[in-house]
Amino acid sequence: MHSPLNYIDPNTGGILFQFLAAALAGATGFLLIFSRRIREWMARMRRGSKRDDETPQ
After folding, report:
1. Cα 24 to Cα 17: distance, rounded to the nearest angstrom
2. Predicted local confidence at residue 27, as pLDDT
3. Which residues of 19-57 are buried (b: 16+ CB within 10 A; e: fewer)?
4. Which residue from 22, 42, 41, 40 is spatially nearest to 30, judged by alpha carbons?
5. DSSP characters for 18-55?
6. Angle, in degrees to the nearest 10, between helices 12-33 and 35-54
7. What is the value of pTM for the model shown?
């Protein structure tokens, strides 16, 4: 006899696909909306690390 925990409904694949598509769309939208802030933050991080490397000891 099969356990009900071993059964996967056929529509589960569709739900998983919809979830992954929504997550991808959300991540893309987030990156597009906040791309300038992300680039500025990365530039500050690079400038900060270069300053730390150039300080005399």
Report:
1. 10
2. 96
3. eeeeeeeeeeeeeeeeeeeeeeeeeeeeeeeeeeeeeee
4. 22
5. HHHHHHHHHHHHHHHHTHHHHHHHHHHHHHHHHHHHHS
6. 60
7. 0.55
pLDDT along the chain (57 residues), means of 10: 68 90 96 90 86 58
Which structure tokens are listed for 43? 């530039």
CA distances, 37 to each of 9, 16, 19 (Å): 43, 31, 27
Q: What is the DSSP letter of 6?
A: G
Distance CA 41, CA 49 (A): 12
Please report, as a single letter, which amino acid is at residue 32.
L
Which pLDDT does position 24 carry in this prediction?
98
